[in-house]
Protein backbone atom coordinates (compact mmCIF):
# COMPACT_ATOMS: atom_id res chain seq x y z
CA UNK A 1 0.00 0.00 0.00
CA UNK A 2 1.41 3.34 -1.05
CA UNK A 3 0.52 6.55 0.76
CA UNK A 4 1.09 10.20 -0.04
CA UNK A 5 0.31 13.49 1.60
CA UNK A 6 -1.67 16.14 -0.20
CA UNK A 7 -1.34 19.66 1.15
CA UNK A 8 -4.52 21.48 0.26
CA UNK A 9 -5.14 24.80 1.94
CA UNK A 10 -4.40 24.47 5.64
CA UNK A 11 -5.49 20.86 5.92
CA UNK A 12 -3.23 17.91 5.28
CA UNK A 13 -4.75 14.77 3.84
CA UNK A 14 -2.91 11.48 3.54
CA UNK A 15 -3.98 9.31 0.60
CA UNK A 16 -3.30 5.64 0.08
CA UNK A 17 -3.56 3.45 -3.00
CA UNK A 18 -2.92 -0.29 -3.22
CA UNK A 19 -0.49 -0.13 -6.15
CA UNK A 20 0.14 3.44 -7.36
CA UNK A 21 3.31 5.36 -6.46
CA UNK A 22 4.21 9.01 -5.81
CA UNK A 23 4.58 9.81 -9.51
CA UNK A 24 1.09 8.41 -10.14
CA UNK A 25 -0.30 10.47 -7.25
CA UNK A 26 1.22 13.71 -8.54
CA UNK A 27 -0.10 13.06 -12.06
CA UNK A 28 -3.58 12.13 -10.80
CA UNK A 29 -3.69 15.15 -8.49
CA UNK A 30 -2.66 17.46 -11.34
CA UNK A 31 -5.37 16.06 -13.62
CA UNK A 32 -7.97 16.35 -10.86
CA UNK A 33 -6.96 19.93 -10.16
CA UNK A 34 -7.53 20.86 -13.81
CA UNK A 35 -10.95 19.20 -13.79
CA UNK A 36 -11.84 20.93 -10.50
CA UNK A 37 -10.81 24.36 -11.78
CA UNK A 38 -12.92 23.90 -14.91
CA UNK A 39 -15.86 22.67 -12.85
CA UNK A 40 -15.68 25.71 -10.58
CA UNK A 41 -15.60 28.00 -13.61
CA UNK A 42 -18.56 26.19 -15.17
CA UNK A 43 -20.58 26.73 -11.97
CA UNK A 44 -19.82 30.45 -12.04
CA UNK A 45 -17.18 30.35 -9.30
CA UNK A 46 -13.84 30.54 -11.10
CA UNK A 47 -10.95 30.38 -8.64
CA UNK A 48 -13.17 29.38 -5.69
CA UNK A 49 -10.57 27.62 -3.53
CA UNK A 50 -13.10 25.71 -1.43
CA UNK A 51 -14.89 24.30 -4.46
CA UNK A 52 -11.60 23.39 -6.17
CA UNK A 53 -10.29 21.60 -3.07
CA UNK A 54 -13.46 19.55 -2.64
CA UNK A 55 -13.69 18.66 -6.32
CA UNK A 56 -10.02 17.66 -6.39
CA UNK A 57 -10.52 15.33 -3.42
CA UNK A 58 -13.63 13.85 -4.98
CA UNK A 59 -11.84 13.25 -8.27
CA UNK A 60 -8.85 11.57 -6.59
CA UNK A 61 -11.19 9.20 -4.79
CA UNK A 62 -13.79 8.46 -7.46
CA UNK A 63 -11.81 8.67 -10.68
CA UNK A 64 -8.40 7.38 -9.61
CA UNK A 65 -9.10 5.24 -6.54
CA UNK A 66 -7.08 7.13 -3.93
CA UNK A 67 -8.48 6.79 -0.42
CA UNK A 68 -7.95 9.34 2.36
CA UNK A 69 -6.67 7.98 5.65
CA UNK A 70 -9.09 8.93 8.41
Task: Provide structural commentary.
- Helix content is 50%, strand content 23%.
- With 70 residues, the chain is of the alpha+beta class.
- A three-stranded antiparallel β-sheet has the order 1-2-3, covered by helices on one side.
- A hairpin with a 2-residue loop joins strand 1 and strand 2.
- Helix 1 crosses helix 2.
- The radius of gyration is 12 Å and the shape is elongated.
- The mean pLDDT is 87.
SSE layout and pairing:
Elements: E1 2-8, E2 11-17, H1 22-42, H2 49-62, E3 67-68
Antiparallel strand pairs: 1-2, 2-3
> What is the strand tally?
3
Counted by DSSP, the helix tally is 2
Mean pLDDT: 87
Q: Give start-end ranges of low-pLDDT stretches.
A: none
Please report the distance between the alpha carbons of the first and last residues: 15 Å
| Proportion of helical residues | 40-55%
Report the C-alpha radius of gyration, rounded.
12 Å
List keywords for this structure.
single chain, 70 residues, alpha+beta, three-stranded antiparallel sheet, 2 helices, 3 strands, 23% strand
State the gist of this model.
The chain has 70 residues and is of the alpha+beta class.
Amino acid sequence: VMFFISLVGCARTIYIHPYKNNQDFERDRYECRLVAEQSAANWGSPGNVFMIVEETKRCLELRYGWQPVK
